[in-house]
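Fold this sequence, please.
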Amino acid sequence: MDEQKRGKVLVVDDEVMNIRLLEAYLTHDYDIFSASGGVEALEKVEIHNPDIILLDLMMPDITGYEVCKILKKSEKTRFIPIIMVTALSSLEDRIKGINAGADDFLTKPLDRLEIKTRVSSLLRIKNLHDELIAERDQAQNYLDLAGVMLLVLDEKGIVKLINRKGCEILGYSENEIIGSDWFENYVPELFREHAQQGFTKLLSSENVGNGYFEIPFLNSNQQKRIMSWNNIVLRDSDGTINGLLVSGDDSTERLEAESKIKRANEYLDNLLKASPIAILSLDGKKKIVTANKNAADLLGYDVGELIAKPVRNIVDDVDLLEFADKKDFEMAFFTKHGEKVWMNVSTSLLKEDGEKEGLIVALQDRSSLRGLFITPLTEDVGDDTQDTEVELESGYVYLSDCEFPEKCYQLFSELVKSGKPGLCITRRNPDKVRNMYGIAKTPIVWLTKNKVEGQQSIDSTEIFRIYPTIADFVNKVEDGVVLMDGLEYLILDNDFLSVVKLVEQTNDTIMASNSRMVLQLDSDVLEKKEFHLLKRWMKSV
C-alpha cells in the first residue's frame, strides 16, 4: 500500500504474545500501535486517532465492553470500527458486544487470512465514511453554511444523510428522518407537486444543477415553516446524477420579524434607503432585518446578502451592540472580503410594549469622518494697518442673528486682518467674501453641493465632516477665530438634533481652546425652543 494511505491499527490486549502475533499479521500493510489495558487504550486513541481497533475483551483494569461503550458514545470516535477479539464464543457474549457497539468479532485462536480480510473490509467502509464526511465538510466550507440544515437526497427524494442542525429544525431524530421520503413527509401537500417538479428539474440532464429556493416545510409539530434552500447536484465518478446536496436555514422568524417591523414602522424602509448614513436594523436576536444600500456598500455586500445574517458574523465584538441608546462609540466591522474596518457607531433601541424589540445601528467609516485638512494662514498685516477695536474673549462661541448679517463678517474680517489666523465656513460664494471684505489668505470652506476645483467644500449631507474640520483648525492655532454661517442649510438635509450635536461638540472644543467662534444664524427658521437649545451656551456679539 502507498505509505501515505496506510491505515492505523490499534491493538489492545494484556497478553504481549497476542499483540506481537497481530503485529506480525498486519504490520506489512498498516501502522500498528498497541495498548496493554483499557485505560491505556483510551489514551492511545486520543493520541493516534486510529482507523480501526482490535480490542481484547478480558483485561485487568476495564473490560473491552466498557472501552467499546466509551468510544461509541463519543462523537469524535464513534465511527472508528472496533473488532472484538475474544476466546468467548457464546451467543450471549456476542450480543453483549453488539450492545456495546462492536462492529465485528474475531474468535481466538486467530486466523491470519480472516484477520486481514475483516480489517480490510471494515477499513474500506471507514474510508468511504471519511470521504463522505470530507465531501460534506467541503460543501459546508464552500457555501459557508456552518450551523445550517444539511441533507442529501437521492434521485427519488429519499433522505440519505442529514446533520444535527437539520434534525433540530425538523424536530425528529436522525433515525426517523434517514430513509424517509422528503416530499411526502416534510413538504406541505399544497406545495408538494411544485417542489417535486423543481427537484426533478434540478436533477435533469438539461439543468446545470445549482439553485436557490424558498420552500415551506413541516416540522414535527406540523407547523409550516419557511426554508431558504441552496442546492448542489451530486454526481458519481461517471458523471451520472445520483442525488442532491441541500443546505437550508429556517427563515420563518426572520420573515415574521421583517413583516412585523414593516407593519409597525412603514416609514422605516424609506428612511433607511434615503438616509445618507449607513444603517442596519436588528431583531431581538441580533439578526439583521433591514439594511440600506449605504450600509451594504460600506461592508462590500449586496443588501440581500446582509438580510437575516447574524450581526456577530460581521463584527469583532458583538457584545458592544447593547440593546440601548448609545452615541458615538467605536467598533470594528468586517467587510465581505474579511477586511477589518473601524466604524463610528450609534444605536437606537426599538421597543414594543416596553420590551426590547430591535436595534437601529448607524455606521460611519472612521476613515471618512476626518474633516478637511486646513492650513492656517494669516492675512498680511502692513505698517498702515490700524489696530482693531474689536475684542472677543477666547473660549466662547458668539451668536450673531440675521438682522445684521454683514456685522459678523465685518467683525471676522477685522479680527483676521489684525493678525489672528481664521477659518470661515459659509454658504456664500468664497470669491465674493474675499473681494467684499479684503480677505486674501484666510481659508474658506463653502457649504454647497457644487464641487469647484481648488475650492474646499462640504455637502449638506456631510455634516459629520464639519466638526473635525473645526477641531483640526483650532488644534493647530494658538489664538484663532472661526466664522460659521449656514446652519440653516444643514437643517435641510439633517435632523435638528444632529445640528445641535454639531454645535455642542464645537462649543466644547472652543471652550477648551484659546480661540473663539462667531456663529451667524437666522433665528426665524427655528422654533423658539430649538433656538434656545442652540444658543444657551453662547454669548451675543
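The chain has four domains: 3-130, 145-250, 254-368, 397-540. The mean pLDDT is 83.
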